[in-house]
Design goal:
This protein is α+β, with helices and mostly antiparallel strands. The strands form ten sheets. Strands 1, 6, 7, 8, 9, 10, 11, 13, 17 and 18 form a ten-stranded antiparallel β-sheet that branches. Strands 32-31-29-26-22-21-20-34-33 form a nine-stranded parallel β-sheet. It is built from 13 helices and 52 strands. The longest helix is centred in the middle third of the chain and has 24 residues.
Length: 799
């Protein structure tokens, strides 16, 4: 056989010199003499898109990741042609495009180089797939660190790592294993105290190398599609994360109950077992808001059915659980059993809704029900049909949430654990193979589920949780980190993953508390609960193959610790709800790694354990057995030990002693932390007062509390309450100013103000410039006082 050696060994190809240039408002085009086009789009002064094609024209511009409802805009755009390069200037950065080879460098307005091409854009013909492998390499600066990338089970700082993005069912994964369930091709670079971000919006299998192969080079590449990436400039990490989250979208507020504690197992059945578990929570007074039903609630694992043997009257059962405060969440997988008598299968078959192989027949794979076909959720007609399937579950039976699993998609007993690569997808009118659609399949399933649950739960808010996700999935769903292991290593991994997911735009995430596979010791379970209550999504889940994993499975001591920390979470619900409101409105991550909190402090760049919960609570889990203390790092500022009220100066490492029923928790000096009374479930109690823990500071600090009806959509009509507290501490005086926005009236009337570490004895109290008797505010020796909630100005004056 004669072959064309020149084609076979062509190798990497590069853009040649620029031969033409054109500007169309915010789009700037550069054409090279070897048919490469670079399109640069200015979205904001600090957000620039770079899109390349090697074929002389661009394919249809379509992305599932970008939130098209979000607005952008810039203040300045100027394009200047010099002898050797073009210069694109905004008010935040300027970008140089070299004429001879299309290489790019990006600088701040002072001329400091933020990011520059090494080889830059290049590509390689992939004759196996009949397309290009698209590549990009950038110079890495001295001391540069890298963060983000979703649920990677590795050190928070990715320097020296190579990661892969291909949504994969990885049962019992381990530290540093690649790839996992989620695909978030977004990283944050930090050097010379300046942060930037890169989002490579390409749904093919992608790779990122953070100076592993070559110590001063960062690269990313994809096995198909376009070189299409967004550059985000900070210089603060917070600017990068919020801009990226704005770009890919933010969720709506979840119902308050979803922030409570949830209990799950594979599987709770029959009905008597479900009732036994829920009754035990109420008996032991461990708060719990949700109970989950795994695949065994179905008839032969057929989605949208109920087992007549295990759950003969689901509507009655769900109503009885709801009466006791439990919301029922059920699992729904993508695999639809091939069964001529199964109505869901018949509907999809009749309407041609299943994914097909390239040679025509429906793609068939084995999952829990046996042989299955799989809906093509990239088809809007299929999503609309899928959404309609939830009517009975949600509006008739009363299920409150849906849990999408196995949606990487996962297929059993085949190499690669997924669909054949030649399976075809509609991709919203942009037909493609599974190589392109694989990474967004789970997100589009979650989107269709969200649309259905939202439709039938109205006027209440929906709740969806997914295992697989691509950037932008946060618009529709929460997530968890998949099939982890009951080990101390996985406790460390869970802590890292939650911080990383928060920085990657997907804040509403948690891990399986205690580990999904294998069996935790009582000590490990207790330590995991102590961490898990500070994660946005809080759920115990286990495979059930290795023993019981309810909180009472480990003895009285662990029951008491579980109750203590779950009660703390329920007390902190207004604080947590406010965190979520800030995430939804501003794109602010709910968990903040120390490097996010203070990127100028080099000691934070490699910290993995400590994190800021919201804005004012510092949490440091115990991650080793037999530990009654640990060394930890306090970042800048002054911090109160939550357990002792001792004040400690930050920016130093120290030893913190704890007991088995404690972990190191610190409160930022000057913080005002809202607390509700302990409830067994959200909405159980009507209370007339809430507590404000006020931590004295010599100086100023602001705190906010957001509240609404805890469900429904009235908050969109202004029916919310946003309280801003401005604290100003002096040597003999503490002043608290309150500003309230919104028309929502909370049920409670009073604040119980708990003054922490007040350095003087209270002599006088003035409210809104009127002197108030100490008896009327019920001041006592613990420095607590009761005050009507709508005060404007509070002065506490010392002797």
């Amino acid at each position: 056989m004669i072959t064309n050696q020149e084609l076979e060994f062509k190798g990497d190809q590069f853009p040649s010199k620029i031969v033409s240039f054109k500007q169309d408002v915010d789009n700037i085009y550069f054409n090279t003499d070897n048919n490469v086009i670079l399109k640069i789009t200015i979205l904001r002064d600090s957000l620039i898109r770079f899109r390349y094609t090697t074929k002389g024209y661009f394919s249809n511009d379509f992305s599932y990741a970008i939130d098209k409802t979000q607005s952008h805009g810039y203040n300045q755009l100027e394009v200047i042609e010099e002898n050797a390069f073009y210069l694109i200037k905004t008010s935040k950065v300027f970008c140089k495009i070299t004429k001879k080879n299309l290489k790019i460098s990006i600088h701040d307005i002072d001329g400091f180089t933020i990011l520059e091409d090494e080889i830059g854009f290049h590509w390689e013909e992939s004759y196996e797939h009949g397309g290009n492998i698209v590549k990009m390499s950038k110079m890495s600066k001295d001391g540069e660190s890298f963060y983000g990338m979703g649920d990677k089970p590795t050190h928070l700082n990715l320097k020296g790592k190579r990661v892969e993005n291909w949504a994969t069912d990885q049962y019992a994964f381990h530290k540093d294993q690649e790839p996992l369930y989620k695909v978030v091709p977004f990283y944050i670079g930090l050097h010379h105290q300046k942060a930037y971000g890169v989002f490579f919006d390409n749904t093919f299998r992608t790779f990122f190398d953070f100076c592993q192969e070559r110590r001063n080079v960062t690269s990313f590449w994809a096995e198909g599609g376009e070189m299409n990436y967004y550059f985000v400039y900070g210089p603060k990490m917070s600017d990068v994360v919020t801009t990226y989250t704005h770009l890919t979208g933010k969720p709506e507020l979840p119902p308050m109950w979803t922030l409570g504690y949830h209990q799950c197992k594979w599987s709770y059945y029959p009905e008597s077992k479900v009732k036994e578990v829920t009754a035990k929570f109420r008996e032991l007074k461990i708060p719990c808001d949700a109970i989950y039903l795994d695949i065994d609630y179905m008839e032969g694992f057929r989605c949208f059915t109920w087992s007549k043997e295990y759950f003969p009257e689901p509507k009655r059962m769900v109503a009885e659980l709801a009466k006791d405060g439990f919301k029922t969440v059920v699992i729904i997988d993508p695999g639809i059993k091939i069964d001529k008598d199964y109505w869901v299968y018949q509907e999809a078959l009749k309407n041609d809704y299943f994914c097909k192989r390239a040679d025509g027949p429906f793609m068939k794979g084995k999952v829990w029900p046996g042989e299955c076909n799989f809906p093509d959720y990239t088809n809007p007609e299929v999503r609309e049909w899928w959404a309609g399937l939830f009517k009975e579950l949600i509006s008739e039976i009363g299920v409150k949430g849906v849990w999408n699993d196995m949606n990487e998609p996962a297929v059993m007993d085949v190499p690669g654990k997924t669909f054949p690569y030649d399976v075809r997808h509609d991709y919203d009118g942009n037909p493609c193979s599974h190589r392109k659609a694989h990474n967004i399949y789970g997100t589009q399933m979650a989107r269709a589920t969200y649309e259905g649950v939202k439709r039938f739960a109205y006027p209440k808010r929906p709740f969806i949780i997914t295992r697989s996700a691509y950037s932008g999935a946060q618009r529709y769903t929460s997530s968890w980190t998949g099939d982890n292991v009951a080990s101390w290593e996985h406790l460390w991994i869970a802590n890292i993953q939650m911080q990383r997911m928060s920085m990657s735009g997907m804040g509403f995430t948690g891990s399986d508390i205690g580990g999904f596979s294998e069996q935790p010791s009582g000590e490990l379970y207790a330590r995991w609960i102590q961490l898990g209550v500070f994660h946005p999504f809080c759920r115990t889940h286990s495979s059930g193959d290795h023993g019981e994993q309810e909180p009472w499975s480990f003895g009285e001591e662990v029951i008491d610790i579980t109750r203590k920390f779950v009660e703390l979470r329920y007390q902190l619900l207004p604080y947590l709800y406010t965190m979520f409101w800030q995430y939804v409105n501003e794109g602010t991550p709910m968990l903040k790694p120390l490097v996010y909190y203070d990127q100028d402090d080099m000691h934070t760049h490699y910290r993995t354990d400590e994190f800021i919960f919201g804005n004012q609570i510092l949490v440091c889990p115990i991650l080793e057995p037999n530990a009654l203390g640990r060394r930890m790092y306090l970042p800048k500022g002054n911090w109160y030990n939550y357990w002792t009220n001792e004040l400690t100066e930050g920016k130093k490492e120290l030893w913190i002693k704890t007991d088995f029923d404690q972990i190191p928790i610190f409160i930022k000096e000057g913080a005002i932390i809202p607390k509700y009374p302990v409830q067994q479930y959200v909405g159980e109690l009507q209370f007339d007062e809430i507590t404000l823990d006020v931590y004295y500071k010599l100086g100023k600090e602001k705190s906010v509390v957001y509240e609404d009806a805890e469900d429904g959509y009235d908050y969109n009509k202004g029916r919310f309450s946003l309280r801003t507290f401005s604290l100003n501490g002096k040597e003999k005086e503490l002043i608290i100013l309150q500003h309230k926005e919104g028309t929502f009236e909370t049920n409670y009337s009073n604040f119980k103000i708990n003054l922490k570490a007040l350095p003087f004895k209270v002599k006088r109290v003035e409210v809104d410039n009127e002197k108030i008797s100490l008896d009327s505010v019920k001041l006592n020796g613990d420095n607590t006082l009761i005050l009507y909630k709508d005060f404007t100005e509070l002065h506490i004056i010392g002797a």
